[in-house]
């Protein structure tokens, strides 16, 4: 086996793998020899691009349409993954976004975001963990957000959902540790994804925001993917229940611009 392929023949589920951090992570796992379950909800074209990139790098993947907010979809995805081999890791990256002020968020919209970001993550993790327990091996990497703790306007329900993801990270790590299953989360700051750029239209504002980040620029999905792979690897065996920032120092920046 090529020693550089840390995940040779290991089955990894990556949700929301049709774009952004999820896409970069799925491709990186494939490059490292994993059998990647490429999950997507609606963006089939993006998921196909992810799969093509995995295969071009010599990896293997399985396209898996599933809405993580729907329990039957989750069960079907876990069963399909297990049919490929024992699930080694789950990357809970898929997310629903909302850019409304607190008073404008309807209950239906709150449920939509919560069902994907929290309830779906919870149930997928639960189903996969039940497969991992007897083998006493496996790990989860959740994708949170800097917005779980550092707020901006019009992100109320999204920020609340990511706060719940971080609490679940701690709770799952504690409850699953006796089974040798690790649970960690990455906390991206401003990573140049479609979701981020959709909320930024003014070039001057984009430049000002990047100037405010201590690293001087937005992060990249590939940089986030490398941290996720590390947390899923044996090198991170003694890391459990951790929140790892990927934000170029933004998380320790003083509140407000100079």
Extended strand count: 7
Alpha-beta classification: alpha/beta
Percent range for β-strand residues:
15-25%
Strand line-up in the sheet with most strands? 3-2-1-4-5-6-7
| First-residue to last-residue Cα separation | 53 Å
CATH class, anyone? Alpha Beta
CATH-level-4 superfamily name = NAD(P)-binding Rossmann-like Domain
The residue ranges in which pLDDT falls below 50 over 5 or more consecutive positions are: none
Fold blueprint:
Elements: E1 11-14, H1 20-31, E2 35-40, H2 44-56, E3 60-65, H3 71-84, E4 87-92, H4 107-133, E5 138-143, H5 156-176, E6 181-188, H6 194-198, H7 203-212, H8 221-232, E7 243-246
Parallel strand pairs: 1-2, 1-4, 2-3, 4-5, 5-6, 6-7
Outline the structure in words.
There is one protein chain. With 258 residues, the protein is of the alpha/beta class. It has a single domain, classed as Rossmann fold (3-Layer(aba) Sandwich), CATH 3.40.50. The protein is 44% helix and 16% strand. The chain has 8 helices and 7 strands, in the order βαβαβαβαβαβαααβ. The protein has helices spanning 20-31, 44-56, 71-84, 107-133, 156-176, 194-198, 203-212, 221-232; strands spanning 11-14, 35-40, 60-65, 87-92, 138-143, 181-188, 243-246. Strands 3-2-1-4-5-6-7 form a 7-stranded parallel sheet, with helices on both faces. Strand 1 (11-14), helix 1 and strand 2 form a beta-alpha-beta unit. Helix 1 (20-31) packs parallel to helix 2, helix 1 (20-31) packs across helix 8 (221-232) and helix 3 (71-84) packs parallel to helix 4 (107-133). It starts with 10 loop residues before the first strand and ends in a 12-residue tail after the last strand.
